[in-house]
Structures are given as structure tokens and as C-alpha cells.
Amino acid sequence: MKKHIVLLPGDGIGPEVTKAAKRVLETTAEQFGHTFTFETQDIGGAAIDHQGTPLPEDTLAACRKADGIVLGAVGGPKWEHLPGHLRPEKGLLGIRKQLGLFANLRPIKGFPSLLHASPLKREVVEGSDLLIVRELTGGLYFGEPRERRNQNTEVVDTLTYTRAEIERIVDQAFQSAQLRRRHLTSVDKANVLESSRMWREIVEEKKHDYPDVEVEHMLVDAAAMKLITNPTYFDVLVTENMFGDILSDEASVLTGSLGMLPSASIREDGLGLYEPVHGSAPDIAGQDKANPLAAILSAAMMLRYSFQMSEEADEVEAAVHAVLQDKYHTADLKVAGGIQVSGSVLANKVSEQMSSHDTTE
Ligand code: NAD
Ligand code: IPM
Ligand code: MN
């Protein structure tokens, strides 16, 4: 099969982890007889430096024509002084919004070989396997007005959702739950926010369309606590944009590192942008220390969701498992008796592991 992939390396560790994902995609193509073509485009700080804007038109146009998009990360201290609308992060928010990528799927699974790598007790983490379905193109991130006013004595951000925006993410979450253990937790702040009360109402209406899914509501503060005291309680969580952002970084501690969490930002027709949950990690950028597994696992999600290549995705995930089983890891993971390697060596290990596995057997 032929697929055209747009790579958006971005900033900081973004280029390092994107290169790792590309390497693994090339191995996948070789192994399964596909033709993957790649095109690299600017986004974020790199786009500001090269083209004066965080989301150039060419980047957007290339993404619209792509079969799949892989993003590294954006942002960094170099661009922090810029006004909000010119910051690297605006490029990422812009591409999500412009492409209508409203559903962000963030799976979190404790790898058996990494149970000791989490700061949480082994018995708490063991068996955890959850999916955060984060609304990605609405809420506080996009509401208007958002401004300083009254001579800088006041500031406003706005949380807006339309009924349709809530309905489509809730549908997505119910459908994800149907493919998993059929337990959905809708996370909100309905004791305070009107938007959350409407969110709850919609979940209550929608549940009749999915009678096989057990659904409940949980306040976000309690959910934050339960995520790290009893993570195996959860199957699928669905929540608005900002809550989902915060809860997913928190949930990454189950895996031992933020550098392990992949994500898919998708829309109804299957186009997706695949992005690790982590940021540009300026503290370790350019040192080949970054964990490439979040980006590699994001590429596997692209194979699964945008290309319908589930066997290929399984192969990448199995290779990641095998490499971790062999105790190879980057510095962010604390693995007792493990073999610490650079990010590029870890990516090569995944690729070699795939090549050593004959899929025609
Ligand atoms: P961060 O996720 O970049 O880093 C948080 C911590 O996790 C750091 O200690 C970092 O070294 C570590 N870390 C992250 N990814 C890692 C990896 N793959 N391997 C090893 N360690 C890893 O968050 P931050 O420091 O708060 O933000 C830095 C910049 O990244 C900011 O400009 C922020 O806006 C941006 N950001 C971008 C994205 C994105 O592009 N999707 C996501 C989050 C943050
Ligand atoms: C993420 C990031 C982004 C977000 C930032 C960089 C805009 O934290 O993808 O989780 O908040 O969505
Ligand atoms: Mn985040």
C-alpha cells in the first residue's frame, strides 16, 4: 500500500523523536512491502525562525493532502517572550483546529517490564490500562474573548462549548469504550462549571445509544486522585480539553515516564495527527537523551487508525515490548539492572527487533 506521511519535527527534542518514528515507519514499509513517502514541514518555533509564523500555509496545505501526520513537539525558551498569537504552541493549536482534529486519544498502559520504573507501588500500577479521550478543539483553549483589559488590571479567558462539540467527543468515547472493557468515566467539574453541567446532561442523553457501556460521572479533582491511587479502576475517561491535558501528564507516571505516552488526534474521516504527549523538553534537547518510544508508539497508532494496518501496528508495539523486556531504556526511565542507551540507539533497537522478526512465518 502507498501512503504519504507529513513529518512535523518542530522544536527541542521534536526532531530527534520524529527521526526515530520515521526510522520505524521505514522498517515497517520494508517488512510489509508498503511504500511510505515522507515530506518534512515546519511548525512551531522552527517555523517562526524560518518563515516568521508558527503555522505556515504550506504546512497546512501539505497536511491536508497527507494520509497521516507525525508531529514531534513545539515550544521552548527561545520563543517564550513572544505574544500569545505568535508563540510556537499557537502552531500546534492552529493545526488541530484548522484540520478539525477534535478527538485526542491518549492510551496509558503499564508495560510489564516497566512496573518498577513508576514511582507508584507495583501493586497499584500493575494491570493499569486506560484511555483518555480528550476533547481537543474547544473549551478554554479556544474560547473568545481572551485578553487583557482595563489597562492591564483585568484578564479574561473563555470556556465555550457547543452542544455539537460535546456530542461528537462523547460519541467517540462511547465507541472507544465499546472496543475495550465498556466502562466509561466522564470527568468534569459539574459542581462549579455550567459547561460541565451541560457536558453531564449530554452524556446522560447519549448513554441510551450505548446500552452496553457502563457510564459514570466523576469530578476532576477526585479523578486526579483516583488515577494514581487506583488506576486499574479506569477503562476509558472522557473529558474537556484542559482537564484532559493535565490528567494525561499525571497518568504518564503509571508508565514510568512522560516519554512513553503516544497520542492520536483524529477526526471522523480518519485523517490524524500523531503526536507524543510530551513537549519539547528543552532541558535535554540536542543530547540524544530523549525517549523516542512515545513518538514510535504514536506512529504505530497512525498505522492502526489512519492506515488500517493493525498487523503492522502490532508488530511495532511488540518490538517496543521486546526491547523493554531486554531492559534497554533511555535515562528518563529508572529500570533496575537496565541497560541505559541514547534515544537513537533505543530507536535502532526497536527497528532491529522488527527486522529480526520474520512476519511471513
Ligand atoms: P515537557 O513535556 O517538554 O517536559 C517535561 C519533563 O519531561 C522534562 O523534564 C523533560 O525532560 C521530560 N521529558 C519530556 N519528554 C521526554 C522524553 N521523550 N524523554 C525523556 N524525557 C522527557 O514539558 P515542559 O518542560 O513543561 O514544556 C517544554 C516546552 O514544550 C514548552 O514550550 C511547552 O509549551 C511545550 N510543550 C509542547 C507539547 C507538544 O508539542 N505537544 C506538549 C507539551 C509541552
Ligand atoms: C499537549 C500540549 C499542548 C496542549 C500545548 C503545547 C499547547 O501540552 O499536547 O498536551 O496543551 O494541548
Ligand atoms: Mn500537555
Computed Rg: 20 Å
Sheet with the most strands, sense and barrel status: 10 strands, mixed
- The H/E string reads EHEHHEHEHEEEHEHEHEHEEHHEEH
Q: Which CATH-level-2 architecture of the largest domain?
A: 3-Layer(aba) Sandwich
Subunit structure: Homodimer.
Pathway: Amino-acid biosynthesis; L-leucine biosynthesis; L-leucine from 3-methyl-2-oxobutanoate: step 3/4
InterPro entries: IsoCit/isopropylmalate_DH_CS, IsoPropMal-DH-like_dom, Isopropylmalate_DH
Binding site for Mg(2+): 221, 245, 249
Give a verbal description of the structure.
Mg(2+) binds at residues 221, 245, 249. Homodimer. Residues 4-350 form the Isopropylmalate dehydrogenase-like domain. It is an enzyme of class 1 (oxidoreductase). The protein is an alpha/beta fold and 361 residues long. The protein has helices at residues 14-32, 44-51, 57-65, 88-98, 122-125, 163-178, 194-206, 220-229, 241-251, 293-305, 310-325, 343-355; strands spanning 2-10, 35-40, 68-73, 103-109, 129-135, 143-149, 154-158, 183-188, 214-219, 236-239, 264-266, 272-274, 328-329, 339-340. It folds into two domains: 1-110 and 256-361, Isopropylmalate Dehydrogenase (3-Layer(aba) Sandwich); 119-254, Isopropylmalate Dehydrogenase. It is 40% helix and 20% strand. The protein has a ten-stranded mixed β-sheet with strand order 2-1-3-12-11-4-5-10-8-9, sandwiched between helices. Strands 6-7 form a two-stranded antiparallel sheet. The chain has a two-stranded parallel sheet with strand order 13-14. Strand 6 (143-149) and strand 7 (154-158) form a beta hairpin. Helix 2 packs across helix 4 (88-98), helix 10 (293-305) packs antiparallel against helix 11 and helix 11 packs across helix 12. The chain is globular. The relative contact order is 0.17. Manganese (II) ion (MN) binds next to helix 9.
